[in-house]
């Protein structure tokens, strides 16, 4: 008799906040398996279409946030690490690289609540999020060199955009493990909190974000994302286009009316039918 495995990614909605939990504590939430790659894609597609969700919190089950790639599979040359160099490259494209692509298409603001070690691809996973909050027991490492590989999940694109080119190079070249306090000092995380307060503080920030108009939040994230590769003129044009649309939304009308009436605005938050 076969026993069904638990889902690799849990989704729970609490008010206007979606909580995502990496749910493979037995592998310290390693990023492997078609079920996990598909779960990220399907979950983000669903959340993008759900205006009842204003923010997302991502965390890990158990003691780790995410241990990165499955080193046992690397040793055994199994899974995505099997075959010739060309076959491994193809496996990365159709496997773990789907995760950063899914994050890049995610319109909803997302906060990483880093509850424990974020190692290798786990560190990069945190960098895929818009904001990072760490427990004081968390640790971080861009540790690919320690197992003789490169950041195959986009870490060399992600990390410099969070901590700057020089610090990203130092972390990637050394593979050094750093504490949550060190991560805060270099801007890898926004704040460090006691471990028993992590989810409460992440949820408080998520609720603060989600209290704002859901469509405008998505457009603001779109502008921030596009600004990574656009010129000033392109960024201004994109802002003008979205601003024109924003001024004609019910969200804008309600926010302005609430401003003058000195009350909290109430926005319509629709779920997909």
Summarize the structure in short:
By secondary structure, this protein is α/β, with parallel strands linked by helices.
Structural summary, described in words:
The protein has 273 residues and is an alpha/beta fold. It is 46% helix and 15% strand. It has a 6-stranded mixed sheet with strand order 1-2-3-4-6-9, with helices on both faces. The protein has a 3-stranded mixed sheet with strand order 5-7-8. Helix 1 runs parallel beside helix 4 (98-105), helix 6 (155-163) packs across helix 7 and helix 10 packs antiparallel against helix 11. The two termini are 37 Å apart. The mean pLDDT is 94.
Produce the secondary structure layout.
Layout: E1 9-14, E2 17-22, H1 34-48, E3 55-60, H2 71-76, H3 85-94, H4 98-105, E4 110-114, E5 117-119, H5 121-128, E6 131-135, E7 139-141, H6 155-163, H7 165-174, E8 177-179, H8 180-185, E9 191-193, H9 198-210, H10 214-226, H11 232-246, H12 250-261
Parallel strand pairs: 2-3, 3-4, 4-6, 5-7, 6-9
Antiparallel strand pairs: 1-2, 7-8
Helix pairs in contact: 1-4, 5-6, 6-7, 10-11
């Amino acid at each position: 008799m076969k026993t069904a495995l638990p889902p690799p990614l849990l989704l729970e909605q609490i008010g206007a906040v979606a909580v995502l939990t990496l749910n493979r504590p037995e592998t310290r939430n390693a990023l492997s398996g078609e079920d996990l790659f598909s779960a990220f894609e399907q979950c983000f597609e669903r959340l993008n279409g759900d205006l009842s969700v204003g923010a997302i919190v991502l965390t890990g089950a158990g003691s780790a946030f995410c241990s990165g790639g499955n080193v046992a599979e690397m040793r055994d040359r199994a899974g995505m690490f099997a075959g010739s160099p060309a076959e491994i490259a193809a496996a990365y494209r159709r496997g773990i690289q789907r995760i950063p692509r899914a994050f890049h298409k995610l319109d909803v603001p997302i906060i990483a609540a880093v509850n424990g070690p974020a190692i290798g691809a786990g560190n990069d996973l945190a960098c895929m999020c818009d904001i990072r909050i760490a427990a004081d027991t968390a640790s971080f490492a861009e540790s690919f060199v320690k197992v003789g590989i490169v950041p195959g999940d986009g870490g060399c694109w992600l990390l410099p955009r969070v901590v700057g080119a020089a610090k990203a190079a130092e972390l990637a070249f050394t593979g050094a493990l750093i504490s949550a306090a060190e991560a805060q000092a270099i801007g890898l995380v926004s704040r460090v909190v006691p471990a028993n307060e992590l989810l409460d503080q992440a949820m408080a920030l998520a609720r603060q974000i989600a209290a704002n108009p859901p469509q405008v939040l998505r457009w603001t994230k779109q502008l921030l994302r596009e600004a990574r590769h656009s010129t000033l003129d392109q960024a201004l044009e994109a802002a003008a286009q979205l601003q024109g649309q924003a001024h004609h939304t019910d969200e804008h009308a309600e926010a302005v009316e609430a401003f003058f009436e000195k009350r909290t605005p109430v926005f319509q938050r629709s779920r997909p039918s």
